[in-house]
Amino acid sequence: MSDPVDQTAAWRKSSFSGANGDCVEVADLGDAVAVRDSKDPEGPRLVFARNTWAAFVADLKNGA
To answer: Which residues partner with 32 through β-bridges?
Structure first.
C-alpha cells in the first residue's frame, strides 16, 4: 500500500502541545488529515477523512 503522506506534507504542532515536547503534529492532506507524534516523525501516522477529523475536533471543543 502506498503512503498517503508524502514528503511534502506540511506538519504543524497542535496549539495545545506542551512545552515538555509531548506534541501531536497534524498535516493537511486536502481531503484528509494526518496525525503523528512529534518525537517520532518517521514513525506511524494516523490518517483521517477530513469530516471525521472535523467531528473529532468539534467534540473536543465541546467537552465530549
So the answer is: 49
Q: Which residue, among 25, 23, 31, 38, has the nearest Cα to 54 in the 3D structure?
A: 31
Helix ranges (H only) for the chain are 50-61
Q: Residue 22's pLDDT is what?
A: 74
Long-range contact set of residues 7-11: C-beta below 8 Å, sequence gap at least 24: 9/34, 11/36, 11/41
**Containing H/E element for 36?**
strand 32-37
Reported as a single tens digit per residue, the pLDDT across 3-22 is: 667 667 899 987 766 667 67
Q: What angle do CA 26, 59, 34 make, to 5 degrees?
A: 20
